[in-house]
Amino acid sequence: MPAYLIYRAHVHDTEAYRAYMARTPAAIAAFGGRFLARGGETVTLEGEPETARVIIVEFPSRAAAQAFYDSDIYRAAIPFRHQVADVQMVIVEGLAT
């Protein structure tokens, strides 16, 4: 069953954040992930306006998404965002039937 990693980031230093962005695609691909949305324009339909950078990544399974997050390759990228972005990241399983 596929799983979706939903990532929201409030980026405080766009230039410094690019170092993190450069490191994540290879880590995602290494675990079978693919970007479905990567920081495109958002439109808030209800509630408070969305001001975060929103990214959605599809993985073949929750285990693959978790393995990506726990991997050495991704862990090496995390320090590049720690001081420049506040992040929320969740994994949600499944397809609606």
Concise summary:
The chain has 4 helices and 4 strands, in the order βαββαααβ. It is α+β, with helices and mostly antiparallel strands and 97 residues long.
How would you explain this protein's 3D organization?
The chain is an alpha+beta fold and 97 residues long. The protein has one domain (3-42, 58-93): Alpha-Beta Plaits, CATH 3.30.70. The protein contains four helices and four strands. It has helices at residues 14-30, 62-70, 72-77, 79-82, and strands at residues 3-11, 34-38, 53-59, 85-93. A four-stranded antiparallel sheet has the order 2-3-1-4. It is flat and about 30 Å long. The mean pLDDT is 94.
Q: Uncertain spans, ≥5 residues at pLDDT below 50?
A: none
Shape: flat
What is the N-to-C succession of helices and strands?
EHEEHHHE
> Tell me, what is the CATH class?
Alpha Beta
**Average of per-residue pLDDT values:** 94
Assembly context of the chains: single chain
Strand residue percentage = 25-35%
Largest sheet: 4 strands, antiparallel
Number of domains: 1
Please give the radius of gyration in angstroms: 14 Å
CATH fold topology: Alpha-Beta Plaits
Count the beta strands: 4
Strand order of the biggest β-sheet: 2-3-1-4
**What's the end-to-end separation, in Å?**
12 Å
Helix tally equals 4
CATH architecture type: 2-Layer Sandwich
